[in-house]
Structure formats: structure tokens, C-alpha cells
Amino acid sequence: MNNLILVQSTSQPSDWILFWGHFHPLIVHLPIGFLLIAGLLELDRLTRRNSVSPHTITLILFWSAVSATMACVLGYMLSQGGGYETDTLSSHQWQGIGVAVFAWLAWAVKSENLGRIIPFSQLMYLPALGIALILLLSTGHLGGNLTHGSDYLTQYMPGPIRTLTGVPDKLPELKVEPITDVNQAMVFQQIVNPILHSRCVQCHNASKSKAGLRLDTPDMIKKGSEDGPVFVAGKGTTSDLIKVCLLPEDDEHHMPPKGKTQLEEGQIALLTWWIDQGAPFDKKVSEVKVNDAIRPVLASLGGGGPLETGGAKVATGRNDGPPAPESPVLTMKVAAADPKVIGELKKAGLLVLPLSKEQNQLEVSAVNAQTFNDTQAQLLPKLSNQIVWLKLGDTEISDATLAQVARLKNLQKLHLEQTKVTDAGLKQLKGLDYLEYLNLYGTAVTDAGLAELTNLKSLKTVYLWQTKVTEQGIANLKKNMPTLDVIGGISEKAAAELAKATSSEAKSGEAKK
């Protein structure tokens, strides 16, 4: 009789209704116990002629009827949250009500209250108790189906027992072709679908679609839940499919639910990447963009050749080491990171991914932690040797965080786009000897901040779109760092003229040599 639920109402239920409804799984076990005890006592009395006080059985039947009624009421309240298969729901509902009705009837006959009204009512007692017990078993099975899926009891049933009981063979497991070359792997079929089937489909399938959501076929994934689409193509972190996975595990909306096997960080990263690329169902890895964040995760799936993006090969982090190992920091051997510290970073919502298992270098990304702030950034220096790539874009950090970042002595890539960092923060980065890539897109950096970049002797690329820098500021920077690749920040015409001027200066310098 577990989880008696009716069809969800069209209006949103109040918190009070759902609050009391969540007591249904607790109360529902009372009629199960009371009715089974009553049935066993009657069986013992009939078969062994033992003397059992009628008052005892009457009392047990009374509380079984009361608790069954309470379970029905609370089950109805719980049902207002919706998200269950309609036919199973309806059968479970009426059978649960039937348990309560026949429990009351058995009590009324046993207590002789009904005998005063209807002659020969004692003849109804055993049939009423028997029907209540039969309905109890049936509705309990349906409740289990609603909660765990229709194959919960039979999922691992051995073959001989299946044959004996007539239970059909279990559904074949998802068969996915092994990935031998990650470039040629189908993004959805070989990478995304196995994740969904291993973590999500148990509760979102044809027989059990919580919240009206099925994730077992592409068409059902596109359809979404009763509240609408679960993903927005191109916007991974704002899609519900990802957001529910990133909620605290104690949150009632967190998926998978607490107690179930949780998604690994790499799996969340893959799902986010898939949606960011438009959620393609028919493309290969080589046909979509492979960014720096997802490259090591893809490389770990198999097929150690270089990853191809749009026809260009990019070295993976599996057999070839990190992408383009031009910097000495990418081949430098460092000590393994403290697992406790990694756990602290993960608890703060950061993704911690290995760039190279051999050298113990790490990428730390806040792609799924937009609330990451200056206080949490104090955790970063605990991995000062291991963090090589750091992505803090679109978070709540300010210049205070850069004081912590400055302690990451092996940092090679730093993303600060769309944050509150200013020129004052950039002053603190001058000790990063290995920093080659800096993204300042959408920040308040000015020409004064650009002047601070000249202290970063290894810097090769800087992004300056939508900043407060001027053409003159960039010209001064290029004069001091002629090989620096400056992307954005000025008009295309000015950029062309600047490139031309820089090229002329370089040629002039070579001629003098």
C-alpha cells in the first residue's frame, strides 16, 4: 500500500498539503502491520483452535481501519505533487481505499456493532478480512511500482524463478559500442545516453515518469517534463537538467535523490558540454567544439588519439599529455593533491579535473558554481602546486580573490571573464611566471590594468572584449609585448592597423639585425 497517490491537481498545492502528504510513507506501514497481525491471529485461531481474545482482534482491526484511512488522506495530499504513471496511480488509489473500506467492515462485524443492524453479519467477517488482506498485498505492490518502477522486484530475478513464475525476461541493458576513437564517438549515443541510463532512467522511463519526465529516448528528452523543457540548447548551466544535479544533496529537488548513486563531476561536465553545443543527437565529437574544460574528460573516455574539433587536431590529456605542452609547467612533475582539499573544493561547487595523471596537474573550474566568492577562494592556495588551469568566469569574485590566485605559482591559464576584478587586482598577478592565457572579457579593467600585464613575461594571449581599455592602451601594451595576442577591446579597423604597425616594427627589427 506504499505511496497512495491520486492524479495531480491543476493548481499548485500549498506547502501545508505537501508537508502532511510526506508523512504518508510513515503512516502507510501501520495498516500493513495491523492487518497482517489480525490475519495471522485468526488463522492461528482457526487452525489450532487457540483461544484469542476477541477484544484483542477487534482492537487491532480498529486501528488498522483508522491508519488505513489516514494513509488514504495523506496519500491524496502527497499526490498533489504529481509525477506518476496515471494508470498505476488510479489502480493504487482505489485499491488503497478498498483496504480501508474492508478493514472498517471487518471491524464492524467483529465488534458486533453491525450484528445489531444486520442479521447473520458474522458470515461477512472472514470474507471482509480476506479481501482487505488481498487488496493490501496488491496495492502495496502498485505502490512499490510507483516509487521504484514496475520492475523493481523482478529486475534481478534469476532465470529459473522467472520461468517458474511466468515473469518475462528483463529488458536488455543499454548496449553501447565501446569508444575506440573519441573523435568518432557519437556524442549522445556513446557519451550522454549511457550517463542518463546509469543515473536517471530508473526514475524517468516508460513505466515511471516522475514529474512527467522521461529520459529513455531522444524524443522524450526533447519533450521535457510537465513543467516544460529540461534543457535549453546552448545554455547548459541554466538548463533544469543540470541545475537539479548541482543543488545540495539534501535539497528535495536534487537529482538523483539522496541515497541514489550520484553523478560524478566528469559526468555533469559532459552533460553541460553536450547542452552547450546545442544538445546534438546525431553528431560526433569531431563535429562539435571541444573546449579546454571538457577536453581532459573526453580524453579519459578512451581512444587516446588527439581530439579533433572542426577538422583540427588538438592533443588530448590521455596519451599525448595536456594540449600543446609548450610550457614547462605542463610537463613539470608535482606532488599529488590532498584528497581532503579536493573534497573541500568540490563541496564549494567547483569541478576538479585532472589534466595529467602522470604529473598530477589539475584544472579547477567554476563553470557550475556561479556563486563562488572571495571567501571560498581562500581554498585555492591549498593546491598551489597542482592548479594549472583556473576558470572563475561568471562568478562573484573580486580583486580579493586575485590575492589567492597569485599564490598559484604554476598557473598557466586564468579565466576572469564577467567578474568584478579591476586594475588593482591585476597588480597582484605579477608573480605568476608561467601564466600564458588571461581572459578579462566583460571586466572593468582599464589601460592602467594593461600596464600591469607587462610583468607577466610568459603571457601569450589576453581577451579584452567589453572592457574599458582604449586603443592607445592596447598600442602601449603591444609595444612592450609585441608577440602578445590581444583579442578584442578595439575596433576591427584599429586592430588591423595595430597589427600592421606591429608587423612593420618586427620586420624593421629583423632588418637591423
Task: Explain this structure.
- Helix 16 runs parallel beside helix 17 (471-480).
- This protein folds into 3 domains: 15-165; 182-314, no CATH class; 328-512, Leucine-rich repeat, LRR (right-handed beta-alpha superhelix).
- The radius of gyration is 32 Å and the shape is elongated.
- 38% of the residues are buried.
- The protein is an alpha/beta fold and 513 residues long.
- It contains 18 helices and 9 strands.
- Strand 8, helix 17 (471-480) and strand 9 form a beta-alpha-beta unit.
Brief summary of the model shown:
By secondary structure, the protein is α/β, with parallel strands linked by helices.
Which bin fits the share of residues in helices? Answer: 40-55%
Total count of strands:
9
Query: Can you write the helix and strand succession as a string?
Result: HHHHHHHHHHHHEEHEEEHEHEHEHEH
Separation, N- and C-terminal Cα atoms? 90 Å
What Rg do the Cα atoms give?
A: 32 Å
Neighbour order of strands in the largest sheet? 3-4-5-6-7-8-9
The CATH topology annotation of the largest domain reads as Leucine-rich repeat, LRR (right-handed beta-alpha superhelix)
CATH class call of the largest domain: Alpha Beta
Give the averaged pLDDT, no decimals.
79
